[in-house]
Amino acid sequence: MYLCISLLLANIANHGLYDGISIVCSKGNCQNHTTIIAGSIIGGGTGIILLFIVTLLCCHHSKGRPLQTNLKFVNSTNHKIYKHELYDVTIFTSGIWSSRHYQSGMWHSFSYFMLSFDPKLFKVTGSGLDNIGIFTIDGTYSIETGRMGLIKTYQLGTKKRTEDFKYQMIIQLTWNSETHQFEGKWYVQTNKYRGTDKFQLKFTKQQQQSSPNNKENSMY
């Protein structure tokens, strides 16, 4: 067997693939082995092609989807913020926030919206309006990891989407103490579009709470 393989490789090197196989086969004693080797070469090549196709299909299917769910991302133990920031709840302040996202090689302008943080349930909710349409936000956050996982849902009939269902964007963000903002990625996967890129979220100002005096004054 090993002699046959040696002869085959030597003849392939000297005479090419098909001529080399023919010469070795003419010896008679290696014909069966040569057939097995040739079949293995062809089968291996087919397997590589099939593997490549499957990989492309998997990449296309997963495009626009994060590797982890929002809950797993937020509570991931492989990321811990500095200890002095561990109990800094001020990075999760209810009020007006601004965000921008990177798409098609450029940053898109900031949009402003309300976010409210529930310190007991560690839930975040919000709503707003941007250049795509009216949206709501639901998600979760963790003070321990300094992360947020959001789902941004656009209402039916948004002006830049033609799907007959609600258009959603998954957003996963991590607090950056140097830039004082949350940074991460957005993910979108619909029947007509799949994509992902950078996303930034920054606190702008606290929500103004109306006092009883203001309510009384507003009646006059």
Q: What keyword list fits this structure?
A:
34% strand; 30% helix; 220 residues; Lipocalin; single chain; 9 strands; eight-stranded antiparallel barrel; disordered C terminus; alpha+beta
Report on this model:
- This protein has two domains: 2-62; 70-206, Lipocalin.
- It has helices at 2-15, 17-25, 31-62, 70-74, 212-218, and strands spanning 95-103, 106-107, 111-118, 123-129, 134-142, 147-154, 167-176, 181-189, 194-206.
- The N and C termini lie far apart (102 Å).
- 18% of the residues are buried.
- With 220 residues, the protein is of the alpha+beta class.
- It has five helices and nine strands; from the N terminus they run H-H-H-H-E-E-E-E-E-E-E-E-E-H.
- The protein has an eight-stranded antiparallel beta barrel with strand order 1-3-4-5-6-7-8-9.
- A hairpin with a 4-residue loop joins strand 4 and strand 5.
- It is 30% helix and 34% strand.
- Keywords: Membrane, Transmembrane, Transmembrane helix.
- The chain crosses the membrane at residues 36-59.
In short:
The chain is α+β, with helices and mostly antiparallel strands and 220 residues long. Helices cover 30% and strands 34% of the residues. Residues 1-5, 16-25, 54-61 and 214-220 have low confidence and may be disordered.
